[in-house]
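Technical note accompanying the year-one report. For the benefit of new consortium partners, we illustrate the data format agreed upon in the data management plan: each record pairs a sequence with a structure-token string. No post-processing was applied to the example shown here.
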Amino acid sequence: MRPTRSRLAGLALGIGCLATLGTVLSAEAASTGVEPVAERRCDGGTVVVRSPSGVDAATACGAASRAIAFLDSQGLQVPAEVTVEIAPKLPEIAGPSAAGCYLVRESQVVVLTYAAFREFGDWFGLPIDRELYGSLIAHEVAHAVASCNFTARRPPIEATEYIAYVTMLATMEPGLRSRVLKKFPGEGFEKEIEINSMMYMLDPMRFAAQAYRHYLKPGNGREFLRAVVSGRAVTGD
């Protein structure tokens, strides 16, 4: 699948890969002539972006801010700082189909540069553009925020992805969101039992659309998100 974020890869990435990431990026920049990585603190002070591209950093700041504002509005606790690393490639452990990941142990988001992301051609069945790139970043930042709120030490993948995809779609530009949902028609999950790892693994994109539609249904929304992070819903049992 391309490019699909794997939560399993994200969990594996928490084991030791970040310690060398900055060194790898610096060495690559020096050997290839790529613009060196610069650090930028976004307006508001919560998000720090490290990127070889100022344009990519600006996209990351906007997307991260929208994701954080949405989750804050849902009653989730926002960490004091979220770090986003933008890299020309991800660590090998992420796998060839990944465009971004969240490093659990280091509490850090890592995403591809826009140029590298565009090489995948499409995402959610749509040609990759800056709006979709921002949505990728919002998805990963949502993982970072959600991880600070889960009561379970190892929440099930379907719980983490439910929150990340709802955040991603909720913060999309409305026209783009409509095009994504049109690509994956449906009525949303009818029962909580349908929000499971098999549904996610079989078709992450359809899972995303169904999760967002489920979130919009009366009685779900903010309260359901809070139930997910508190371990009262989508427990993987």
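Partners are asked to follow this layout when depositing records. The two ends are 27 Å apart (CA to CA).
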